[in-house]
Amino acid sequence: MVKEFISQLPPDKLTPFKKHPYQVREDAAMDELVESVRTYGILSPLLARPKGEGYELVSGHRRRLAAQKLGLPTVPVLVREMTDDEAVILMVDSNLQRENLLPSEKAFAYKMKLEAMKRQAGRPRKDNPRQLVGNYETADVIGETTGESGRTIQRYIRLTNLVPPLLQMVDDGRIAFSPAVELSYLTRDEQAELWDLIGREDATPSLSQALRMKQLSREAKLTPEVLYAILTEEKPNQKEQIRIKTESLRKYFPRNYSAQQMEREIIKLLEARYRAKNRGER
Description:
282 residues, alpha/beta, five-stranded mixed sheet, 13 helices, 54% helix
């Protein structure tokens, strides 16, 4: 029988879950949560487990931060004894239904849950050698609770093989999901070279380009020169567009400006010039 109880505990005594894959962002949604807690209190207890001489938080990291911001002395916590794998699965499941999860958050969450489920399943029985412990079968089980196919689960997990700068570009929406999955098969050195090229050329790979990079990587033919040649190809949707290298514009803008910010400022200047020209011709 699972031992559990509800207690009022100081939020500072709750240790965040180790390798928690979800970000606790201080954004508009957090501001709304803080105001909700201020008005109504914490309506649903946080979930924690005994860990050492204290408690490890399994679910409720955002509520914990809201309580800390408000200076609440204690928060309601459901304390339950659970194994490491049980805690991982509960932690992942309690957050997967949140809106606006980043691709990286889903990727690492799915990976943690898949590995925990495989450990729980243990060695397959002789009469059922696969026993839902093969990657794809386990991913299907995870998909049943998220509404996504096992293949989609596995594709998200592939993103954990991206180097951090490329994964950040996926979270920022600069690299689409499907190309990102294919790029995850490149070696880390190849990915680092690609990230450097993306910054210098202000271009990102299409799906077809990513697939070619993946194939050439498998054949050990993806040299920096080949990467450059593929990345700088003119894409069909780039025809009749003007390309200006980012380095040519840097001296005219603050150093922290992104390519998108520079583009917006240039458009504003051109629009102002166009309006001034039209006024002068009247």
